Amino acid sequence: MTEFRLPALGVFALTAATLLPFAASAQDMPPDPGPGMPEMLPRHAPAGTALTLSGTGTVHAAPDRLTATLFAEASAASAAAAQERVNALAGMAIDAAKAAGGITTVTEDYSAEHNEGGKAPAWTARQTVRLTGADGAALLALVGQLQAKGLALSGLDWSLSPDRRQSLTRQAEAGALTDVRQRAEAAAKVLGLKIASIRSITLSDHGMPRPMPMMMMARAASAPVAPGAPAEEQDVSASASATFMLTP
């Protein structure tokens, strides 16, 4: 006697037909984000309207570091004699800065040149000494003393120390983020939408503020007189760019 198993095939066909639509719809769904993660929208669901804006933030602050650029110069009949005098002047400046405390020193641009054209003395030596400190009044007083002892002052520059600049940059960045957020909220209100999320944010600062140069001072030959160097406020700026997603 022959047996027929068509009902079993029918059950299989029905099961496959039932599962296929489910499998197809599952492809359009994102993976399970896992516990504690926000639920993700389907891949093909509308994400809303993208709005990209930029904002700026600026902080004004007085500089906290003064740099004095001095140079020692001497002329003599021989290179050795000229260099000996310059070395003595530069060494005196470094020793005085160490004794004062709180001042960093940098020596640079050492040169010894022969004077052309038969001019006497025949050799001129020169070296630059930079003194930097947070106490502007103390540094200026020291500069006056060094001028009286034979060094010349070529420049005074106020600037922001790295720590101070970093702190001000963070404040400027916060201002830039606040600015771009307020602009986005205002735009969304005009459009009759609301901010649903932020797709991306980019932050950047506008570089190191330039030092504030003071007028060059001449070499002093009499009693020490501290040069003047008023500290003017400097600007630290940052910008922010963000893309907001708006929904009804």
TrEMBL record:
Signal peptide range in chain numbering: 1-26
Which residue ranges traverse the bilayer? none
Q: Where is the composition biased (Polar residues)?
A: 236-248
Q: Which UniProt keywords apply?
A: Signal
Any single biological process term in GO: DNA damage response
Q: Which InterPro entries match?
A: 26kDa_periplasmic_antigen (IPR052022), SIMPL/DUF541 (IPR007497)
Q: Where is this region: Disordered?
A: 225-248
Q: A Pfam family in this protein?
A: SIMPL
In terms of superkingdom, the source organism counts as Bacteria
- The entry's protein name is SIMPL domain-containing protein
